[in-house]
Amino acid sequence: MKTLFVSTDFSATGNNAVRFAIHYAKAVKSRLIIFHSTHLPPFKPTLSEAEYLMLEKNTEEKQHKRLDLVVSKIYREQGLKRDSKKVSVVVKNSVFAMEAIVSVAKAYQADLIIVGTHGATGLKLFGSTTSELIFKAAAPVLAIPPRYRYRKIKTIVYATDLKNMVNELRCIVPIANLANAAIEVLYLDFGMGNVKTNLEIKDLIKQLKYKKIKIIVQKEKAVLSILEQLQQYLKNRKPEVLVMFPEERSIFDKLFVRSKTEELVYQAKLPLLTYLKSNVEQ
C-alpha cells in the first residue's frame, strides 16, 4: 500500500480520522496525504474577476496553514515525528467536499481513503460526504467511528455473500498481510441459495496462499435479522476491522441502505472498510 489519503473537515471526528491515519501510515510505511476541502468564498458582484481569484487563493492559503497546524499538533500529542517527505498537507477550494475528495484522492493515486464518521447526532453516522464516498470513490474507503483509537490490526472480519469471494479476498489479503492479521470469512446463511460446503470454500481459499484465513458459516437465527446477527458476531469477536463489498441487488442489499449501514457501524464501534463490488474483478 503506497499511498493513504485522509480527509478532515476540522471536526473532532475528522481530526480523529487524521490521528488514525497517521498511526496506520506509520505502521504500514505508507505515504500519507492529509486533505481538507474548503468552501469557495461567496461571489460578490462588486468584486472583479481578479479580486475574486485573489480572495479564493487567500482562502485556500489560510486553510492550508490551519490544516498544517492541526496536523503538527496531532503529531506532537501522539509523540510522533512528522516526516515531511512522506506526509503531505493538501487543501483545495470546492463547492462539494465529496467530489473534491474523490478527484484529489484519484490525482494522488490513493490506495485507500480514510474518513471519520459523525456519530448518532447531527448528520447521523456518516453524513452525506462519507456515505457518498463509499458508493462513488474508486479507491476503497475506511470509515472511522467517533473516538475510535488506532490499534494494531489482528483480526479482519470479511462479511460475504459468497459471490466472487476469491477475488474479494484478493483485495483484503494485502492489507491483512501487512499487519500479519487473521481474516475471518463470515457467511450468514439465510437460505438464499449461495451455500457452499466448508470443503468447497477451503479449496477456493487455497488459491490465495494466505494461511491465516478462517471460515465461519452461521445458520439463520429466526429471532435475529441479518443486521442483528452480524452485530452479535462482531460484539463477540471484537475484530479491528469489518470489510464489506456493497452492491445494489446483492443479498446484503438491505445492509447497504444508508441508514442500516450507519446503524451497523455505529453500534459495532469499529472501522468499516468497503470496496464496491463493481470495482473488483469478476
SSE arrangement:
Elements: E1 3-7, H1 12-28, E2 31-39, H2 49-78, E3 87-94, H3 97-107, E4 112-116, H4 127-136, E5 141-144, E6 155-159, H5 165-179, E7 182-189, H6 198-205, E8 213-219, H7 226-237, E9 241-244, H8 258-268, E10 272-274
Parallel strand pairs: 1-2, 1-4, 2-3, 4-5, 6-7, 6-9, 7-8, 9-10
Antiparallel strand pairs: 5-10
Order of helices and strands: EHEHEHEHEEHEHEHEHE
Beta-strand percent range: 15-25%
| Arithmetic mean pLDDT | 83
General form: elongated
Low-confidence stretches: 119-127
Biggest beta sheet attributes: 10 strands, mixed
Which secondary-structure class do the elements indicate? alpha/beta
Total strands: 10
How many helices does DSSP assign?
Answer: 8
Could you estimate the helical fraction of the residues in percent? 40-55%
Rg measurement, Å? 20 Å
Order of strands side by side in the largest beta sheet? 3-2-1-4-5-10-9-6-7-8
Distance between the termini: 22 Å
Structure summarized in a few sentences:
The chain has helices spanning 12-28, 49-78, 97-107, 127-136, 165-179, 198-205, 226-237, 258-268, and strands at residues 3-7, 31-39, 87-94, 112-116, 141-144, 155-159, 182-189, 213-219, 241-244, 272-274.
